[in-house]
Model the fold of this input.
Amino acid sequence: MIQDWSSITLKALQDLWYGFADFIPKLIGAIIIFVVGWFIAAWLGKLVAEILKRVKFDKLFEKTKWEEAMQKAEIKMTMSGFVGGLVKWILVIVFLLATVEILGMSQFALFLKDIVAWLPNVIVAVVILLVAVIVADIFEKMVKAFVSKMNVKSVNWIGSTVRWSILLFAVLAALSQLGVGKDIIQILVTGFVALVVISGGLAFGLGGKDTAKEMLEGLKNKLRG
Done:
């Protein structure tokens, strides 16, 4: 009986040792992959941020008060730094997924796979916002140039309205891409429309009629000329 117990105990210890010996190489390999991946992700993130900084990418966001908002939150981050950080953490998640798969952590791997599958939506949403900022800037300048030829006083107000309208709908499109509930988006759209109607009514009540009259007269003069 004692011999049976000793053999069972010995076999259990052997199995534990074999399992441990089999796990150690996987652990070392996983650590190496994650550390190397972290350095690669950090380097590529800095590279992307530096490239965007050199092409004056941050200037596109000066009117959005991005840096001012970050400073108020005591966060030192430019938009180029934000994009670079996004690239870094996407790659970190990818390398982390490879690490947990090597270690055989199936449940955690499934969780990370869901995150990785969702990342394209994040990228598309960010692209939508970046393109919207560029388009909004172009349209604001075009509208200001067009309206200024009509000798209208509210050039800046009209240009800003066009700009922020484009940005708002871009935010709504980005939220939709991220899978945010349609009910929330509908509430935001309804609120925006109500805000425009109310502000428009106030504008006409407080002298907006003169602006509209100026625009119509300017358009008439332009057509006659």
In short: Residues 1-104 form one domain. The first helix runs from residue 2 to 54. The mean pLDDT is 73. The chain has six helices and no strands.
